[in-house]
């Protein structure tokens, strides 16, 4: 693993301490993109629907304060499910379960998928308790499979995840309707019988073609 200079390391340490605590479990995780590691994970994209309208209604500063508080509460909930928030992207909250050395052990795949589904369910409940709900709503997509993870350019450290699993989670979130949580087929296989699900369906997702998915019922 390539070491950062003291300057670079101080930047890394300040980015997000909870993120870099993961190095204790996976010392190879935070490497350059050319040294990318593969993990079997469950990835979730949760989108805040109508956030633009909320900004217009309560003003940018008030909205920024609210979203900050909301995402801080999301981070606190994520810790209860061994989940790692990869990033926020505007009004999206993106997290992953399974970024550790043992992620490729098949016995953990079902557990990781279940935690991802449970966490999204908890986060959706947090949104439903918001004073701005239901005008501020949510939708989410969850996918399980191989994920590449690492830092792009250690001179300007930026941790991220890549791969078809990540794309599938993103596409499912986009395809979901308000209050829907959509799971890909791999995630469905892991959690069926444990989480109430609706009948599987097929749809064509951009860049992925025909894709089977299922929607979660409230837990």
In the CATH hierarchy, the architecture is 2-Layer Sandwich
The tally of domains stands at 1
**Uncertain segments of ≥5 residues (pLDDT<50)?**
1-34
Helix content: 25-40%
Largest sheet: 8 strands, mixed
Using the CA coordinates, give the radius of gyration. 17 Å
InterPro entries: A/G_cyclase (IPR001054), Nucleotide_cyclase (IPR029787)
Protein name: Adenylate/guanylate cyclase domain-containing protein
GO molecular function, one term: lyase activity
Keywords: Lyase
Brief write-up:
The chain has helices at residues 6-15, 17-20, 51-58, 60-79, 106-128, 164-175, 185-191, and strands at 37-49, 83-89, 92-97, 137-152, 158-162, 181-184, 201-205, 209-215. It has 219 residues and is an alpha+beta fold.
List keywords for this structure.
219 residues, alpha+beta, Alpha-Beta Plaits, 38% helix, 29% strand, globular, lyase activity, A/G_cyclase, lyase
